Structure formats: structure tokens, C-alpha cells
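Re: export button greyed out
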Amino acid sequence: MRLHFYFFCFIVNHMVNYYKSNLDQVFSVLSDPTRRAIIEELSKGEKTVKKLAEPFDMSLPAFSKHMKVLENAGLVSYRKAGRYKYYYLHQEEFYDAARWLNDLKSFWESQLSSLERYLLNNEEEGGNKK
Amino acid sequence: MRLHFYFFCFIVNHMVNYYKSNLDQVFSVLSDPTRRAIIEELSKGEKTVKKLAEPFDMSLPAFSKHMKVLENAGLVSYRKAGRYKYYYLHQEEFYDAARWLNDLKSFWESQLSSLERYLLNNEEEGGNKK
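Workaround output, generated via the alternate export path:
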């Protein structure tokens, strides 16, 4: 029974850590403009590194380092076709980060509407007293 | 006339740089779990550093460093009331980051529905041929 409990704790802890580290990694990756541009480009469909690197004034090895960061963070993968590697995006890995920011906005907006309700109620009460 | 054009270019360039550097900074700040927790807490209302630091197993100087990062990035400010500094959040500074991630999701979802449309059309055409 106790073993089950420890196993349960291990799983929960693992999930919490995954969730945390996923957010740490995703936000860290997104703090660089080149990496954001690569992600935007890959959201339109899979591409080779050569094609992805074209718009950037950067050496191919320097560009490949950015690709390695994205790959190590589990945000992109590739499939091989002959001599070429086609990179594609793991879109679902960005969902938690988007949710985190949207939750922040929702909370803020709900607070604003509480304030509006409070002001409106006070206004009505003030009006009734006249 | 040419002067107007240069001024216009300067303004546009300035705006683009602001937008880029704002995203760089916001995402970089968000890559740390302590800073995310502080932001979540401040989204509920203004607080002193002492109150904010309470849940963390961290020295006050170490915690203050995180506050300094948030302050330098223009994400929090404080007002003085007697001996106390009350910190509050600049919620609007997170909007661009949220929009960037939501745009990524919208684009992905619109692509998915294009694929659905394509598959449905093909299915119908296939059905008609029978």
C-alpha cells in the first residue's frame, strides 16, 4: 500500500517537474528573435535547415546551433528524405506557455470586471440614496 | 521632405526594435519559475517584497535580485507608502508575448482546418466517382 503511495508521489512529482521545466525551456527558447523566426517559419510547414537559414545574415554553423537548441528542448524534430533532413514543429509543446499567459490575462480581466461591478453597485447605491 | 522620410524610418525602426526587445525580455524573464510565481502573485494585487518572498525557500537578497530583473525589464514598479514599497504589475507588457503565442496557435489551427477541408473534398470527390 505504502509502495503505491510512493509511486503515486513519484508520478505527481515527475509531472510537476515536467510541467515546470517545459515552461522554463519553452520561454527560454522564445527569448531569442532568430529562434522565434524559425518557429514562425516552421509553423507554416516542414523545411530543410538550408531553406530555413536563407533569410538570416548568419553562418550555417551559427544557425545550426539555434536548431540544436530547439531540438534539445523537444520543440522540433526532423525526418530524413535521401540526403535531406526536413524539420517540423511540435506545436503542442507551446500550448502550456500560451495557457500560462492567457490565464494571467483572464485573471486580470476578471479583476477589472469585479472592479467595474463594485463601481457600478456603488454608483447605484449612491443614486438610490439621493 | 527627405528629412520627414528619415524621421519616419527612425520611428518605425525604433518601434520594431522596441517590439523585438520587449518580446526578448518578457520571454527571458518568464523562463524562471520563481519569477513566474512572483508575476502570478502580483496579478492578484500589489504586495511588499517581504510578503512576496514568504513562500520561497530563499534569502531576501537572492529574492530581491529576481525583483530587480522584473523591474529592469519594466514588468513591475513600486509605490512608496511610509517605510514600505508596494510592488505592482504592468500587465499590458505581457500582451505582445501572449499575442505571439496565440497567433502561432491560430495559424496551426487554420492549417489543420485547411487539411480537414482538403480531406473532406477529396472524400466527396472520391465518393462521386464511385
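The mean pLDDT of chain A is 82. The button fix ships in the next patch.
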